[in-house]
Amino acid sequence: MIYLIKFIYSFVLPPGIFVVLLLGMVVWLWKHNRRPAQVLLAVTLLLYLSMTPLVSDTLISSLERQYTQPAAVEGDVIVVLGGGATSGTPDLDGEGNLGGSAANRLLTAARLYRQTGLPILFSGGQVYADSGNEADIARRQLIGLGIPEEDVLAENRSLNTAQNASNTAGLMAEHGFARPILVTSGFHMPRSMALFKRAGLTALAYPTDYQASRPMSLYANKFTPFAGAVSTTGVALKEYLGLLAVKLKP
C-alpha cells in the first residue's frame, strides 16, 4: 500500500503532474493536428525519462564507476573539493553550512585524516552572493571535529573545478606538497582528475558521496517521475559536458 501511494504521488505532485498535463495536451492536439502532437509527444517522453530514477541512476553510476576507492592511501596531503554552501545559517560554532555533497566529502576527509594523519587542504570559494565561502566553513568545521588548525589549509578563492585545480597546485607548491589524495564525489571525480592533471598534479583519486546504489534494482518507482531524479540527471549531464569541454580545450 505504501508503494502504491508513492506511485500515485509521483504523478500528482511536481514534476510528474507536468508529464500528465503534457500528455493531455498531446491527446488534444492529436485530434486536430498530428504533426505538432508527435513533436510534443517526443519532447514529453524525453522529459519523462529525465525524471525517472532509472535513467538518472544509470547516468550518474556511469560516472561513479570510473574510479574506485584505493585499498592503500599514499600521498602527502588530502585535497577536498567544495560542492556548495549556505551563508548565515546557524551551526554549532558559527554560521554557514556545507551542502550535502560537500559535507560528505568533508566527512570522508576527516576520516582519512584519522587514518593517515595527513594535512587537509579544502578548496572552494564563495560562488554566489548568497552562498557561503566553502573553504572557510570547512576549515571551521574540521577544527570543530578536533583536527588541529595547523593541519587544515583553506583555498577559499576558487569558483569552479578548473580553479580548484590551478589554485590548489599553487598552494601545494607553497607548502611543499606534491602527492595529493583527491577527495570529491564519485560523479565529480572523472572531470576533477582531468583538470588536476592539466594543472600538473598527479593525484590519487579517493571518490566518495555516491548517489547510485550497487547493484541497481528494478521496481515500479524506478519508472515514475521524481524531483530528485531530475537533479541527478542534470548533474550527470553537466559532468559529461564538462568532460567534453576539457577534452576539446587546447
UniProtKB/TrEMBL annotation:
The keyword 4Fe-4S does not apply. One of its GO terms (cellular component) is plasma membrane. It comes from the Bacteria. CDD domains: YdcF-like. The chain crosses the membrane at residues 7-30, 36-55. Residues 76-242 form the DUF218 domain. This is DUF218 domain-containing protein.
